[in-house]
Write a structure and sequence with these properties.
By secondary structure, this protein is mainly beta. It has a single domain, classed as OB fold (Dihydrolipoamide Acetyltransferase, E2P) (Beta Barrel), CATH 2.40.50. The protein contains one helix and six strands. Strands 1-3-4-6-5 form a five-stranded mixed β-barrel. The protein is globular and about 55 Å long. The chain starts with a strand and ends in a 28-residue tail after the last strand.
Length: 134
């Protein structure tokens, strides 16, 4: 089994999904990790890689990820890699790798803010320590 640790940013708000039949909840999200490097000619460059992640732990998905994770949150995710295969609507078979989450740490501060009514004015979001790469 391949163990992987990724530190990056959530590309979008996590999706909390229910399994057909059992109704068990799981969280699906994408983590973006940017690697900065220097080319041979001295120019700087960067490469961003996206990782599809899924958390099958129902309690973690509902009580932690749904409550605290949001687009742009800096996260550290560890788990193992699995092949993911599915058939599209057109009958084409698709293949991908996904990270099955075993541990997740969110580095953003505080829970997701509740939507404010227009009478209350705009809300502020806590500043992240690092620059978001997207």
């Amino acid at each position: 089994m391949q163990s992987v640790i990724i530190e990056g940013y959530l590309a979008a708000d996590p999706s909390i999904l229910s399994a057909q039949g059992s109704g068990k909840k799981r969280a699906a999200f994408r983590v973006l990790e940017t690697q900065r490097f220097r080319r041979g000619d001295g120019q700087t460059g960067e490469r961003t890689t996206g990782f599809n992640c899924v958390c099958f732990n129902e309690k973690t998905a509902e009580d932690y990820i749904a409550a605290y994770a949001q687009k742009g949150s800096r996260v550290v995710v560890s788990g193992h890699v699995e092949n993911d295969t599915w058939t599209g609507r057109d009958g084409t078979k698709h293949y991908d790798l996904r990270l099955v989450v075993e541990n997740l740490r969110i580095k953003a501060k505080g829970p997701r803010p509740e939507p404010a009514s227009q009478a209350e004015g705009p809300t502020t979001v806590a500043d992240l320590d690092d620059e978001i790469p997207f």
